[in-house]
Amino acid sequence: MSRAAFVVGLEGAALAVLGLGYGIAGIVGEPFDRTATLLEAGFTVLAGVLVLLVARGLHRVAGWARSPAVVLQLLALPVGVGLVQGRVWYAAVPVLLLAGAVLYLLATPEARLAYRGLE
Known about the structure:
Largest sheet: none
Helix content: over 70%
Oligomer: single chain
């Protein structure tokens, strides 16, 4: 479970850093709508923190953490496909690889066995 938690933690950290960078760009730069930019940045940081909490739950093999982790990865797949269709390969490849890796790691016999006693 620690490998899946690590990968989900990477996703959460990436979201938080992306939100912070977007927020700094919104403060320093000249956005069209500064309020909307800062709200989007805040929501991105909040999403990153929530994903980090899911990663912590996966690391502790908490029963509540598996479903949000799977749903997050299933939502990331169409995002990755959209990035492929938009020819943004440098973003699509990591999104698809990380989502596939987490889904695989959560479906391994060891992961299913770890959660079996919690059901």
